[in-house]
Design a protein that fits this description.
heterodimer, A: mainly beta, six-stranded mixed beta sheet, four-stranded antiparallel beta sheet, 12 strands, 53% strand, B: 11 strands, 0% helix, 51% strand, globular
């Protein structure tokens, strides 16, 4: 069974600090996909990034970066020079590629508060 | 292109009442999902559909029924609402493979008193 753990329930940092959100996953599949979603205070869920299990390259998009390490089953998300607009709940999610398993399993989320 | 829409946005029910939540997508997606979001528990899958006319149970299906009569619509029904069903409900859809992200609707906040 697939499982996603986000051990950090809430994080608060002062604006312009860097912050890393942890995500640890469990799966029996060798092919799987990892996602990060953002849920701002307005409530909608916004897709941030997708990564497949065969691509361990780290990715950077502006102030956002993601570190995927299969050896530790982790897919961590770092925000550099945080801004107030980054305040949100962030969800990590996992989808296995096996036929018949079309589900996306979410972690419980990390609430990030950026203090101005 | 409206994406994924949900109707209604808010609803208050009394225990025992029934209602249907409507999800519509205009992206021709095969897969559609219903989740509930509760504090501290993330999103949990209620039911999903892999195509028109098909439905399957997710993690927390009890007390809910679904139908997918048309490809673009996915209905979630509560036959006899209970206070434990107070939650925010999200619908999502995606295209053919798990490689792709799910697109979410804006959510429906349901309160059962």
């Amino acid at each position: 069974a697939q499982k996603v753990t986000q051990a950090q329930t809430e994080i608060s940092v002062v604006e312009k600090e860097d912050v890393t959100l942890d995500c640890v996953y469990e799966t029996r599949d060798t092919t799987y996909y990892l996602f990060w979603y953002k849920q701002p205070p307005s409530g909608e869920l916004v897709f941030l990034i997708r990564r497949n299990s065969f691509d361990e390259q780290n990715e950077i998009s502006g102030r956002y970066s993601w570190n995927f390490q299969k050896s530790t089953s982790s897919f961590n998300f770092t925000i550099t020079a945080s801004q107030v607009v980054d305040s949100a709940v962030y969800f990590c999610a996992l989808s296995e590629a096996s036929f018949g398993n079309e589900k996306l399993t979410f972690g419980t989320g990390t609430r990030l508060t950026i203090i101005p | 292109n409206a994406g994924v829409t949900q109707t209604p946005k808010f609803r208050v029910l009394k225990t025992g009442q029934s209602m249907t939540l409507l999800c519509a997508q205009d992206m021709n997606h095969e897969y559609m999902y219903w989740y509930r979001q509760d504090p501290g528990m993330g999103l949990r899958l209620i039911h999903y559909s892999v195509g028109e006319g098909t439905t399957a149970k997710g993690e927390v299906p009890d007390g809910y029924n679904v139908s997918r009569l048309k490809k673009q619509n996915f209905l979630l029904g509560l036959e006899s609402a209970a206070p434990s069903q107070t939650s925010v409900y999200f619908c999502a859809s995606r295209t053919g493979t798990v490689l792709y992200e799910q697109y979410f609707g804006p959510g429906t906040r349901l309160t059962v008193t």
